[in-house]
Amino acid sequence: MKFIRKTGKYAFLFVMALIVGTVAAGCGKSSTSGEEDGSKDGGDGKASGELNLFIWSEYMPDKILKQFEEETGIKVNYNVYSSNEEMLAKISAGAAGYDLSVASDYMVEIMKKQNLLEEVDKENITRLDNLDPEFLNPDYDPGNEYSIPYMWGNVVIAINEDKVDKEVTSFEDLWDLEFKNSLVVLDDQRILIGIGNKLQGESMNSTDTKVIQKSKDLLMDLLPNIKAYDSDSPKTMLVNGEAKAGIVWGAEAYLAEKENPSIKTVLPDEGTNIWIDNFVIPTGAPNKKNAEAFIDFILKPEVSAEIIEDFPYANPNLAAHELIDDDIMTHPAVYSNEEFLEKSEVFKDIEDAILEYDRVWSEIKQ
Known about the structure:
Elements: E1 4-7, E2 10-13, E3 50-56, H1 62-72, E4 75-81, H2 84-92, E5 100-104, H3 105-113, E6 148-160, E7 183-185, H4 189-199, H5 209-222, E8 226-229, H6 235-239, E9 245-249, H7 250-259, E10 263-266, E11 274-280, H8 288-298, H9 301-310, H10 326-329, H11 338-342, H12 354-365
Parallel strand pairs: 3-4, 3-5, 7-8, 7-9
Antiparallel strand pairs: 1-2, 5-11, 6-9, 6-10, 6-11
Helix pairs in contact: 4-5, 5-12
């Protein structure tokens, strides 16, 4: 699958741990429900009610939520998770009340199969034309019946050049003794085991038990070098010097460099994971229309561009590109070159093989 960024004359390609409980504190039951949600007039021409948003941490600026509340009269309750698997576990365990969440490509496919998603009413999404056609009608959700693209991006290596003597060009280099107790890595089984797969010349989506076991062995060898697992804000340890290097989200590498110029991005020789995150509406959402109103609000070019200022991931909203800083649009941590993207992979639903990934991950982290 190719991802294309168009900027003027340039174009760049581009398990579940069971959590039992109800909606976390702050995600209260809405005052509207069913077909009435999001449509009730608050007396000033605005909608009323609530939106219970369940999303990755550091992924939606507070100022954007306040803008939406002021524009629509809809109160936003905001809760976060650290991984697709955490989100899936919470929703599939019966947590009620979430109206809108974000799921990566392969997770959309999984949630569809488990009947955990509502179809999106496109009549309530008026700004779909702002999205780059490259991100519409994906294999994991033909016709975007259940998902609307929000962000996309990659996983890169970030190094502190002031602290690292070794030339780093690949994931394999991070196994060097120079990085003993000095790496921050994403707390994500698909990504880390996927990297192990790639080091064998295999797919990040491999379902071969022998490949997965070998990846476990490789990651066990890496353990002495791992100082911390952090999917929420891995840039923190890079910026403050606690970590010499890391396996991090591209946007985190970009932000780390802005705070500490000695931090540099390395696009690993093996390629990496390219992910697409999507808005999804959990089955039984009490405020479905409010969720769709929020999606439509985010698709405004000026709103989408403002989000990227705080969280500079790659943006599928083509109409917003001209409003985004050129430094973001041309930085390799955010928009990588075509050669790198061609070597990279999008995660897919690996079905029953996920049980083997779960087992291996638990053994690595025990």
